Amino acid sequence: MDTLLKNLKVEINDKLFLKDPETTELGKRIVGHSILMIHEMGFEQFTFKKLGKAIHSNESSIYRYFENKHKLLLYLTSWYWSWLEYHLVLGTLPLSDPEARLKKAIIIVTDEISQDSSFDHINESVLNKIVVAEYSKSYLTKEVDLENKQGYFAVYKRLVLRIRDMIVEVNKDYLYPASLSSMIIEGALHQHFLKEHFTAITDCDLTTTPTTYFLNLIDQLLLTYER
Amino acid sequence: MDTLLKNLKVEINDKLFLKDPETTELGKRIVGHSILMIHEMGFEQFTFKKLGKAIHSNESSIYRYFENKHKLLLYLTSWYWSWLEYHLVLGTLPLSDPEARLKKAIIIVTDEISQDSSFDHINESVLNKIVVAEYSKSYLTKEVDLENKQGYFAVYKRLVLRIRDMIVEVNKDYLYPASLSSMIIEGALHQHFLKEHFTAITDCDLTTTPTTYFLNLIDQLLLTYER
DNA sequence: TCAAATATAATAGTATTACTATCATTAAAT
DNA sequence: ATTTAATGATAGTAATACTATTATATTTGA
Fold this sequence. Notes:
Two copies of one chain form a homodimer.
Chain A: H1 2-7, H2 25-41, H3 48-54, H4 59-63, H5 69-92, H6 98-110, H7 124-139, H8 144-149, H9 154-170, H10 177-197, H11 210-223
Chain A binds a DNA duplex through residues 19, 24, 26, 47-49, 52, 57-61, 63-64, 67-69.
């Protein structure tokens, strides 16, 4: 399985880049370092000029890979969701019991990525923190409908639908499986953010994690016996 | 009650502005028109220069009221949450039954603001749309901890805690009242966004609203009989 | 009512951002 | 060895996000 993971080619909409960064050394350095820099300084402060300096390359060279930093963010987050989807599929495949499958899925999508699998140039743990802090900005734009039409959010949506389907398998009578699924995925990011910055309005901390909270949630919503 | 509403002075952290916009005609025009413009063009495209032109005033005059557009966004969203809190308090005050109170609270914070009460220069319905589309950007920044310490998010947090308390009143055994409350408030904004832009991953539409969904959620989580 | 204070407008200027364009250099492939 | 492709260096543009200065209205209060 580890070798499988190593050979995994994450699937990303090819309109998100001008030149596939996976095909060159420079491309990988752009992606790898942009993750670290966006995490360090935040998306607003991050610029291609600063990135060029950091990787001892040139601003103009970076523009040959990505049109602008918005597209780069879409690329990075697509990579993340695609990577997570792969783990979800792989992690739930051996489980035939719907309840066990769903629980495993919840764990995968709500847990913090603490382990840097570091099989490549991408630090998944840092990328996870970027997704928590910046993902909303990728779709809260005036261009969202156009970009959605272009398929820029396809991976994310497919992930939500996978979990929706698992919800239905567990309880076909539950009326809002899509909303529940999208709420869990977005809500987990939010709770992770709150436990770092607004501790007063979350119960999540070092012992109670967003995973604990959401496992309890689906348990009560879907798995409680006849009422 | 209508006159009460009219005399309501929404409470806002006074570090969010340089000069209170409520005290002058120009200030009110700045606030009123910035809401319309941010809604029309999105926060990224919105500038003080454009706003100045739109209200036939000068960029430099706007800078005398607000340090920058980030502070203006914090001001507008604070105004919104304060206004909503007022409605929450007023709307739940007459209800003594904890369950009825909580349900009423959920309705107030998850429903779309369709009616423009238009008792003043602020269009609450448009402001509500701004909150859906832009609120996350006000706290997903590198300055969030500093700004939180300054109290810029105090109203929002207090609203979350009010609903948390109502949750506890309904079911003192529920383990995650703060996370549930924060999830409902943020989740409602998210579901409203999804029903406009990512319809495939939500069950919300014209008939099933976020309110329907969240009322069912608390019903199942807190109000279901002994299990 | 007239002077002083205050609010607003107009204009100019700066550093940075988010690019585009051009040309030079280096590396790779045929 | 030559062409092609990739990268780097430099320059330039329009817009943004301001700051500063000065001019002009408007308000107020002695």
